[in-house]
Amino acid sequence: MAAGDETYRPKDAIKPAIGGMVVTGVAGFAVSAIQNTLTKQNVTPWSVFTRSGSTIAVFAAMGGTYEFVRYAAANLRERDDSLNVVMGGFVAGNILGLRFGTTPAVLGFGAMTAIVMGAYDYGGGALTGYKKDKDVDEFERKEKLRLNRRRPIEETIGELGEGRGIYGSGYEERRRELLKVKYGLDVPAKS
């Protein structure tokens, strides 16, 4: 939402729920296939569905439920913020806890998933940090930061000395004079 735009526009909750169910169902299939390959006895390729198919179902249910609750909560609250993600994460974590069949597991997995998903969304939805403004060019932003923190060359030379790519004005003349005094070499000036 823009700064001046305060009206909430409802979003479809069914389409993202189906998409989330498909994506996490495929991830569940991959995990189920890994479980299938790690068994000690001989199994058929169909045992991905028969032996560890509940993994696929739990993953798909978690993804679909998360997306549905997130968008439904946003529509009911008429706000798009991190609390919707927390609600969706709690319900999705509850589904994971249902596999264990105890109330502490249901509430614990729900709380854990809600906290992790809420913190991730509140932190900008990226592992690299909060998302920067998409309207600002990244090159211009970095140039502005460089200019803001730039130090005068005299201060840098005073702390580090000359050499290693850091040279003040009149360096060539001082170098020629030093070589002449110290070693008796007459270095010609560059044209």
TrEMBL record:
Superkingdom, according to UniProt? Eukaryota
Q: Which GO terms describe its cellular component?
A: mitochondrial inner membrane; respiratory chain complex I
Query: Which subcellular locations apply to this protein?
Result: Mitochondrion inner membrane
Key word Transmembrane helix present in the record? Answer: yes
**Which keywords does this Swiss-Prot/TrEMBL entry list?**
Membrane, Mitochondrion, Mitochondrion inner membrane, Transmembrane, Transmembrane helix
GO terms in the biological process aspect are: mitochondrial electron transport, NADH to ubiquinone
Main subcellular location: mitochondrion
Q: How does the record say this protein sits in the membrane? A: Multi-pass membrane protein
Record carries keyword Signal: no
PANTHER family to which the protein is assigned, alphabetical: NADH DEHYDROGENASE [UBIQUINONE] 1 ALPHA SUBCOMPLEX SUBUNIT 11, NADH-UBIQUINONE OXIDOREDUCTASE SUBUNIT
- Name this polypeptide is given: Uncharacterized protein
In which organism is this protein found? Calycina marina
Kindly list the organism's lineage.
Answer: Eukaryota, Fungi, Dikarya, Ascomycota, Pezizomycotina
